[in-house]
Predict the 3D structure of the following.
Amino acid sequence: MKLVSLLSAGRIVPEMKATTQWEALSELVGHLVTTGRLPFEKTEGVLAALHGREEQVSTGIGHGVAIPHAYCDHLEEAQVVFGRSVEGIEFESCDNAPVHYLMLMLVPQEKSQMHLQTLAAIAGLFSKREVRDRLKEAGTGEEIYAILQECEG
């Protein structure tokens, strides 16, 4: 499964305001709610699932990238949102560096195989310095989406 098939320009937050790991999760989940991709009443459960996952081990994979993710029983399809922080967010990453790129994934429990494949695709894509450098220079959600399409394609 290609990452860009789960994204759109409307699922991108090009200038995150969050400065902490927990604020970042709330901001990205809030974006899903605001854009109608997640019912407001599911917010608390989704945040609890994400917090539980982060407390096990940080999803900050290094190189300024984090992939917060959780299984959510009440979802019918995967929900993905991408956020970029120019300033960087403290995320307890494995390399202790601030996170600039976050790909938040919420996955229905029964789609665990798709979840693992997508996590691997995201990690592979963001392991490339060229991708991270190009995303740093993008100005809008549309530009970020175009870069992701091109680099993944």
About this structure: The chain has a mean pLDDT of 90. The domain at 3-148 is CATH 3.40.930.10 (Mannitol-specific EII; Chain A). DSSP finds five helices and six strands in the chain. The chain has one domain: 3-148.
